[in-house]
Sequence to fold (81 residues):
Amino acid sequence: MTLSQVLPVLQSLGFDVGVDEHPYEIRVPGTPIRLYDFGLRLPDGEWDIATLGTKVENAFSAAWRASPKWTSSTSSCCGPG
Fold:
């Protein structure tokens, strides 16, 4: 996924993106690979950490498939409470 695809998914899940950012380029002959290491912060509140990972996986899976569902089905799924 490109950076422009990743950031909206993370933001829709309630993450504050870009707390810190470290881009890396891995050199493999004939294949440039870029890795973006982002620091994320969740808004204040109680979070169900046990289910947060699954919700993030589902959002990225939908975005990967170019499904428009991720914006409506996950935009508030991970909120505190």
User: Anything to note?
Assistant: The helical segments are 3-12, 49-64, 69-74. The chain has one domain: 3-72.
